[in-house]
Amino acid sequence: MTPYDVPETVIRRFTENGCEVTAIVADPADAQQTLYGTVTRDGALVGSYYCADRVRQSEWHIVTALGLPLTLDGQPVNPVSEGAAVLVLTSILTARDSYEVEQRLRDATRPPQG
Fold this sequence. Notes:
Blueprint: E1 9-16, E2 19-26, E3 33-41, E4 44-53, E5 58-64, E6 71-72, E7 75-76, H1 82-92, H2 98-109
Antiparallel strand pairs: 1-2, 2-3, 3-4, 4-5, 6-7
């Protein structure tokens, strides 16, 4: 039987757009795989994000402060990277009301007009 090696994890904190982002990173000296992160503003949870495929660091998901997956028009909003997830949480979900959140999401996910 092979012993299971638990990778070293670290907590990384930084501020983005007035929000505190806290990320849990596995194997920081080598693979740099983000397990999940949370975003708070003024001490209140905005939401969290996690990576479904840690090896490829793809298939990112966002969970709102209510514990629900972030959706737009009934479809999940899945950012392409950790940076995109942080951007959604720190700039879009910090809107004043649900209408403004939905409008910001639509603006961010529409193809450019031109």
